[in-house]
Amino acid sequence: MASASESSDATFELLSSLRYDPLLLSCPDNNSIYRKDSTPTPLYMLQFHKDRIFAAAQHFRWHEAISKLNGVEGLNTLEQTLSAAVSQQSDPDTPIKLRVLLSRTGVLTVEATPTPPVSLEDLFPKELKHHDTFTPSSKTGGALLLGSGDQAFNDSAKTMNSGPWRVSLDSLRTTPSSFTKYKTTFREVYADARARACIPSYQELAEVLLINPRGEVMEGTLTSVYFFRQGRWVTPPITSGGHDGTTRKWLLSMCRCFEEVIVADSVVEGEECYLSNGVRGVIWGRICKSEAQPAN
């Protein structure tokens, strides 16, 4: 549970960002997460987002927020609020990023902005594809290093996820807290890490990974992360200090990846990795340690 100071601090809100995309109406995988009937939904992994916000409300002991999202009624309330935000957009056929905020007093608000297209394979990949030549490594048990650099996945369409994101390691250590384990608007540790990595804009195809005091990779500032180790794709466990991302949760449930501690020293310059979040789905990345800037 949250400490007394964390649970009593009302200066932050609970947060989750998800994708609205008409493409999802033809996606059985997305529908199976949300409901068992035949009615499709254009909201990406809605149930997982509701569960994540609800778990954060329970952790911080925000009773009015818990009541807002409790049970099936809470899921319906969230869906109706999201649908109302979508209906106010000028083009409902355009994919939208929906930023959900829930206050301590149970006030639910949504911020809607257009987001670039991606493929269904980006959102629900059948596998995490190897792009590079397999190169054995005593550190990693087989990191994937610089190789052919094929397009992401099997979809030939150009999407924002087609090319590798530049992924660096933070130059300072981050102590895990309730604000790294649960997603809130209190994001100073993430903003500071992006500043140290010289990533000035959230539009850049770049990410920096937080490292805990034990030297373990936690997560990215916007994403969960996945590395190839011992013949399989793995993601840091939440015990390393990051939060349980929604797309990460689905990938684990489908055995597309497994939890395993990732020691930062095992990460190899040039190796490929994957990232994921609730707006962009799964993203191909490549480690560029040179992007990280030394601490002043």
Give the SSE layout.
Layout: H1 4-8, E1 14-20, H2 28-34, H3 46-60, H4 63-69, H5 71-87, E2 96-102, E3 108-114, H6 120-123, E4 165-173, H7 178-181, H8 188-196, E5 206-211, E6 217-220, E7 224-229, E8 232-235, H9 246-253, E9 258-259, E10 272-277, E11 281-287
Parallel strand pairs: 4-5, 4-11, 8-9
Antiparallel strand pairs: 1-2, 2-3, 5-6, 7-8, 7-10, 10-11
Helix pairs in contact: 3-4
Task: Describe what you observe in this structure.
- This protein is an alpha/beta fold.
- It is built from 9 helices and 11 strands.
- The strands form 2 sheets. It has an 8-stranded mixed β-sheet. A 3-stranded antiparallel β-sheet has the order 1-2-3, covered by helices on one side.
- Helix 9 links the parallel strand 8 and strand 9.
- Helix 3 runs antiparallel to helix 4.
- It is globular and about 45 Å long.
- The two termini are 35 Å apart.
